[in-house]
Amino acid sequence: MSSHEISEAEDKLPEERGAESAVRLAEDPFADPGLPPHEHRVQDIDERAARRSERTVALLFTVSMVATIAFIAAYVALPVDKYIYVFPIGHISALNFALGVTLGIALFTIGAGAVHWARTLMSDEEIADERHPIEASPEVKSKVLDDFRAGAKESGFGRRKLARNTLFGALALVPLSGVVLLRDLGPLPGTKLRHTKWAKGKRLMNYNTMQPLRPEDISVGSLTFAMPEGMSEEQHDFQTEIAKAALMLVRLQPENIKDKRELDWSHEGIVAFSKICTHVGCPINLYEQQTHHVLCPCHQSTFDLSDGGRVIFGPAGHALPQLRIRANDQGYLEAMGDFPEPVGPAYWERG
């Protein structure tokens, strides 16, 4: 409004201004436009088109079922360490790629099938309802139930058996993906914790030089670390296996060995014990030459290598396992088998 019009409006009496406002409100510029006339879809008037849509929905649900089965098959069949090249991503885990693609297809086709069903087969007529009090009267309850029955009937859920049954199949199979993934809580260890890479005839390799050890390589009072022949840091499971197979060698005077079995399993005073502490699995590397004790640096568990590796101090629960060794025909030290018991910390399955 201009300043002149504002001045004129202020000069009018209050009752005159009120009458003009009432006229403007009566015109109601935001009147309810109502709903446009309902337009029927081709599926509403042509049963053949409706059946085509039903078959499309069923196909999507069937694809979901197949993708779920493929997800489970890939999870079981594909190795964890297999990699493939996928453009433009690059090299990725074949297992992760297969799981992602199959599960994505399974979930997407369920959603696409449900959307296609709703858009082509269920009723799409818009209904306006007046607002009502929050409390539900008997008439409202009856109306809700009637609307539910009418919606269920119009959805074709009872009549479109093909779409309904394939939906049930897809929804029943998809949860199996989650059930199968429970396997990753860990496979059961089986007997893996009871065995290492040591076996009869495997030579003792110097951990630092990677050369086979001879008795003369180990002097009295020295501490030498060894690992089984055939292991390499390039192997994918090296860290897992060396955590069980790591070995320490000490040469003692035979008359200083107190335990008879330890003496029988040694070679010219050379004794071989697991390097893995029996408390929480730390590597032992501190040796006291005068006492023949080894000390774990983590929690100070102390073991006597002249008396069967028994615990003399600290929280470790049992003695260090000993490896039986000998010298072969070529003069190299070799194992005469695996450790007689699991190495490292105790666990509840330990026998």
Quick summary of this structure?
Keywords: 2Fe-2S, Cell membrane, Disulfide bond, Electron transport, Iron, Iron-sulfur, Membrane, Metal-binding, Oxidoreductase, Respiratory chain, Transmembrane, Transmembrane helix, Transport. This protein has helices spanning 3-11, 14-27, 42-45, 47-77, 94-120, 138-155, 161-173, 175-181, 238-245, 260-264, and strands spanning 83-86, 90-93, 204-206, 223-228, 247-251, 270-274, 286-288, 293-295, 302-304, 310-313, 322-323, 325-327, 333-335.
Can you give a write-up of this model?
With 351 residues, the chain is of the alpha+beta class. It folds into two domains: 144 residues, no CATH class; 143 residues, Rieske [2Fe-2S] iron-sulphur domain (Rieske Iron-sulfur Protein, 3-layer Sandwich), CATH 2.102.10.10. The chain contains ten helices and 13 strands. It has a five-stranded antiparallel beta sheet with strand order 3-4-5-6-11, with helices on one face. It has a four-stranded antiparallel beta sheet with strand order 7-8-9-10, with no helix packed on it. The longest helix has 31 residues. The protein starts with a helix and ends in a 16-residue tail after the last strand. 24% of the residues are buried. The model has no long low-confidence stretch (mean pLDDT 85).
User: How many E strands?
Assistant: 13
Strand count, sense and barrel status of the largest sheet are: 5 strands, antiparallel
Task: List unreliable stretches of 5+ residues.
Answer: none
Distance between the termini: 97 Å
Element order: H for helix, E for strand = HHHHEEHHHHEEHEHEEEEEEEE
Subcellular location: Cell membrane
GO molecular function, one term: oxidoreductase activity, acting on paired donors, with incorporation or reduction of molecular oxygen
Pfam families: QcrA_N, Rieske
Biased composition (Basic and acidic residues): 1-19
